[in-house]
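Here is a complete protein record:
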Amino acid sequence: MDKNSTLRDRLRELGIKIVDLANMLDISRPTLYKHIESYETNALENLDSSYIALFNYITQNEFINAKNVFIYITQNILRLKERDFQGSMAMGRVAITGNAQKDAFITLLLESNRFDDLLGYFISCYELLEKDTLSDESRAFLQPLLKLYESLGLKL
């Protein structure tokens, strides 16, 4: 690896196609070209630090190969994106239904297993409540839900 080689040269040397790298990063090719241009011209102020770190990893590590680069992306960039998405959900910034209380509960269900044991029961209750008539067994099955609603002053 020549010290004066560019990021594009290094990608070519590693056999990494721009289209594959863009797909792996979940960005468009034009966006990736813009990031590479920013990196190569040292215009880093508008470049995300995770891309700077990736590009440094690619250009400064002589003994890596394409597989190492894709592993780096998976372990560092994609995990950060996933964590950011989960964090944004936890902060209530992702509107799922438009109902803030419902969105908060859905987020809680996604991030926690605290209510997992109840989900099957609630699904069964929903299916029973959709029916026009209920058997005595179905009514008995619904009693805990009815008591919960009643204790909260709600009507089912």
Summary: The longest helix spans residues 66-90. Residues 60 and 78 are 21 Å apart (CA to CA). The chain has a mean pLDDT of 83.
